[in-house]
Structures are given as C-alpha cells and as structure tokens.
UniProtKB/TrEMBL annotation:
One of its GO terms (biological process) is chromatin organization. This is Histone transcription regulator 3 homolog. Has a role in a nucleosome assembly pathway that is required for the integrity of heterochromatin and proper chromosome segregation. Coiled coil: none annotated. It comes from Verticillium longisporum (Verticillium dahliae var. longisporum). GO terms for molecular function: nucleosome binding. Signal peptide: none annotated. The lineage of its organism: Eukaryota, Fungi, Dikarya, Ascomycota, Pezizomycotina. It is found in: Nucleus.
C-alpha cells in the first residue's frame, strides 16, 4: 500500500518507462561499431524486423516453457509491451533507419555463413523500400525535397540489388528458405520497380524520335540515365531468378517451363537490345542469359536465343536459326577459355546438323575457329601420354589376318586409360573430332592439281593431329579411327600420285602409312560393331567398309 511519502504509481506508466529504456538500450547496442557477436544481433533484430518468422515455446500454467513441435507459437501472440512499442516505433521511422537495421541483420547472417537468410533479408529490404514509395512519408514530402529523397532511395535500392543479385546468381542455396509468400511479395516489388524505371526508358524513346527535347547539361543527364539503366537491368535479372524459382516449384502449371523461361529471357533481351541497354551493368544480363540457356535443355529454336547473346557478348555469329542477329551496340569482349568449354556442346550440335560443305562456307566455321583459338593447345597429361604411346606401339605391329577377323566381331581392343583433364569435356562432346573433320574436309576439297603447292598438306596434318587428340580421350570413337585412317590414305596418295621418288627412295615411309591405315581401319571396324547408325549426313559406316576394302585392293 502506498504511503504519504511514496505517491501512487501507475503500472501502465511504469511499463512505458521501462519500454523507453528498453528501446534506448536496443538502439544504443545496434549503433555500436564493435559488435562482434552476430548471434546476439540476430536475436535482437529478427523479432523486431521479421516477427512473422519467429516462434517461441508456449508456456504452461506454471510459467515453464513446454517442449514439442506443436507447442510453439508466433511471437506476435505473446509479445511484451517493449517489443510492441519497438514495432510501433520502427514502423514510423525513416526509410534510412529501417534500411540500416535490415543491413545489420543481413550482415550478421552473412558473418555466420547463412547465405539464404542473408539473401532473404536483402529481398525484404527491397520490398520495404519499394513499399515506401507508396507510403505517407514519401508522398507527403514537399515537392522541393521529394526528388532528393527519391535519389537517396534509388541509391539504396541499387546497392541492395547488387548484393542480392550476386547471391542469387552465385549461391545455390540462396532461395532455400524463401517461401511462396515471400517470392510473390518480392516479385511484386520488383515489378513495381521495373515500371518506375521504365519511365526513364520511355523518356529516352521520346527524345530519340524527337517528341521531347533533351534537357540541358547533356553529360550529367546521360550519366544519370546510364545509372537508371543499370538499375533497370539488375532489376530484370533479379526478377528472372525469382520467377525461375517460382515456376520450377509449379511445374504442373508450367509443363514446358524451360521454354517459358527462355521466352521470358528473350522478351527482356528484345526490350533492352534495341535501346542499347544490354551492355549496362557490365553485361550482367547477357552473361546470365548465356549461363541459363546453356543449362536449359528442352528449348525449341534455342540457337536463335543463343546466337544473339553470343553476338552481343563476343561478336560471334552462328549463321543458323530463324532470326537475323541485330546490332545492340555492345562492344565485343574476349572469349575466355572457361566460357568456350561451356559452349562446345551447343556448337558441336549445330555443326553436326549442317552438311560439311555448307559448314566450311558458313559463319559457324569462323566461330568454331575463334573458339579453338580461345581454348588453345591441348595440355598433355600422363594418361594421354600413356594412350598415345600404346597407339604408336600398336601401329608398329604387323597386320595379322586373325585380328582382321576379330574386328568383324568387335574383338580388337587397346590398352587405354580414361583421361581426367579440363579438355575431357570437349572430347566427350566430339570437339576435336569436329575440328579434325573440318580440316580433313578442307583438304579433300582442294583441287588435286593444287595439292603440290607449299602448305597444301597442312590441313591434312592438322586434321590428323586433332583426330589423335580425340582418340586419346575417347578411344572407342570409331569415326575418329576411320577419319584418321583416311588421313594416312591421303598421305600415301599424295606421295605416289605425281612422282615415283618415294616409291624408289623412301618405301619404308609408304609402308608405314599403309600399315597405319590398315590398323586404324581395323580399330574403326571393331569399335563400330553395335554403334548407332543414325547420321545427319551420309552413311559413314558404309564408307568405312568401302574404304577398308579399297585399301586392301591398292596394296
């Protein structure tokens, strides 16, 4: 009971005073720069900023926490007065303060390597800033100060987009805890942001066609528009990653989701390209689209999508597809070896579809040569040396009739080992076989009378070198052995067709070429047993039997 000295105290007033002290301690702790305990930051900030994700144990009648999965309740249902006051206070604070809090929480998750929660915080911050554009704090701002606030908010959004997009593209677990409600909220926020940013694109269109006069201070205006263009490109890229996750989670609604994703990327490309915006933000959209197109498998006319991307990035033309490539004003950049290896699969598929005579005259051949220049020479490994040494020893053996008979049943084998090297991926896609076939075909198309000119044999020997590389990686490639046998046959033909000097003075070399040809034909015959006989062009299996028979007739 109160006495005369101590007046009556209101419990509500006491709670308010305690709440003020709690709020003050909360912010004093957050603004310290030397905070070294990220778990403490998470425990303090998560209930304040993201209360819907926080659950606490339900207390029983004695005030003790109960255990069990179904005994947890949302913190909103049992929040203390201090926490409720914090929610109310933060709701009315400036965008900058709330961004600071989200940044602290995101950094805390990042410091404990919880990338998906760090990413979620960044998405929530983006949603918050976009929502603030429609809030009273922004709309009721005086007209003379609102542009400054707009620029500050756009700058904050740009920083958030950069960090979020980096995690979305480089961290596989980025979307692990992002549920459907969160995805929809982020997608809606990014769509609103894209609509806002598209106003600048519309203004540029009007200036370009003369509807609107460009403002004075051209360099400053252009720099500002470039920055908005970069933000727009990053927004589109992050929006794609959000929609991709949502679409993959609902394949019943999107049965051909890979085609849908490719069409969506192409639609963005068609918006950015004609406006010369593809090069914005270090070509991040083009690089993302290239990466995605190489991952997606079930796409119709994928060469059209990929062709425009490669032209924008590297100035390369595939020369196939329905659409003509357009100039999007992108300066070509050097093709790196890693990216070239990733492209090899798609390029070899396109090359196989095309007759060799057409391929030799196409832009695709130029692209293939450019890619090989980026790949560079093959680096030998001990396994490759082992295989090549065994091939060389095998070629020195005499031709044995029993081995020829065994080849008809697929019974001729070589002692080879599998090769583990960066170029193995290329060989598995038939890259070196493709290069060898191109070089060999170029030699075949040279007029017989011109084969005696200096350098005429270079294509033949280059082709043989690439075919050997292919066989070092894939010794069971029967077509590789067959084309290598052709190279040896042409060596013999070139040596005897115009002169008898080698027959008289260097017969041993001719015998070696003939023996090598027979051995290669034998291996090709053995490896072809049970092989796939569905070919894009001609019937190489028929050619193998015919050439092998003619080889014996010419002995």
């Amino acid at each position: 009971q109160n006495n005369a000295v101590l007046t009556e105290i209101s419990s509500a007033a006491a709670d308010r005073e305690i709440s003020k002290l709690t709020t003050m301690d909360f912010f004093l702790g957050l603004f310290q720069d030397d905070i070294s305990d990220p778990v403490a930051i998470i425990d303090n900030l998560e209930p304040v900023l993201n209360a819907d994700s926080v659950y606490v144990p339900r207390s029983d009648s004695d005030g003790e926490a109960t255990s069990g999965k179904n005994k947890r309740i949302p913190i909103r249902d049992c929040a203390s007065q201090g926490l409720q006051d914090l929610w109310k206070f933060i709701k009315g604070t400036s965008t900058e303060l709330r961004l600071f809090l989200w940044s602290r929480l995101s950094d805390a998750y990042g410091s404990i390597q919880y990338a998906t929660k760090q990413f979620s915080c960044q998405l929530r911050a983006i949603e918050m800033v976009v929502a603030d554009f429609e809030g009273d704090l922004y709309l009721k701002n005086p007209n003379d100060t609102r542009p400054v606030l707009l620029l500050r908010m756009m700058k904050s959004l740009d920083e958030l987009l950069i960090r979020a997009l980096s995690l979305a593209l480089n961290e596989q677990s980025a979307y692990d805890i992002v549920d459907e409600v969160h995805l929809k909220a982020t997608a809606a926020a990014l769509a609103k942001l894209s609509c806002m940013l598209h106003v600048s694109a519309s203004l540029e269109d009007e200036i370009r066609i003369g509807m609107t006069q460009a403002p004075s201070g051209g360099s400053v205006f252009q720099a500002f528009m470039n920055k908005l263009r970069e933000i727009q490109v990053r927004t589109w890229c992050l929006q794609y990653t959000v929609l991709k996750i949502g679409i993959i989670q609902h394949t019943d609604v999107f049965p051909k989701y890979e085609s849908d994703l490719a069409e969506y990327l192409a639609a963005i490309h068609n918006v950015l390209g004609p406006r010369k915006s593809c090069k914005a933000s270090n070509k991040i959209f083009l690089k993302m689209m290239r990466m995605e197109l190489l991952k997606l498998k079930n796409i119709d006319n994928w060469e059209d999508y990929l062709g425009q991307v490669l032209y924008d990035l590297h100035g390369l033309k595939l020369g196939v597809g329905i659409w003509e490539v357009q100039d999007h004003g992108c300066p070509p950049e050097k093709l790196e070896r890693r990216n070239t290896i990733q492209l090899a699969d798609k390029i070899t598929v396109l090359a196989r579809r095309m007759p060799m005579k057409d391929l030799l005259k196409s832009e695709l051949k130029t692209t293939i040569e450019h890619m090989q220049g980026a790949i560079g020479p093959v680096r030998s490994t001990p396994q490759m040396v082992h295989n090549l040494r065994n091939y060389t020893e095998y070629f020195k053996r005499p031709v044995h009739p029993l081995r020829l008979y065994q080849a008809l049943k697929g019974g001729v084998e070589l002692d080879t080992v599998s090769v583990n090297a960066p170029e193995t991926v290329l060989a598995n896609h038939g890259w070196f076989f493709l290069l060898g076939s191109i070089a060999l075909s170029k030699y075949k198309l040279v007029d017989l009378s011109k084969r005696q000119t200096p350098g005429a044999m270079d294509d033949l020997r280059i082709g043989a070198t690439f075919l050997r590389h292919q066989l070092q990686f894939t010794p069971n490639n029967w077509e590789g052995w067959f084309r290598l046998a052709e190279c040896f046959d042409y060596e013999v033909e070139d040596a005897v067709v115009w002169s008898a000097d080698k027959m008289n003075k260097d017969r041993a070399e001719l015998v070696k070429f003939q023996r090598n040809s027979i051995h290669c034909h034998t291996l090709a015959l053995s490896k072809s047993v049970g092989a796939d006989t569905d070919y894009e062009e001609g019937d190489p299996l028929h050619d193998l039997y015919h050439n092998f028979a003619m080889r014996f007739l010419r002995l």
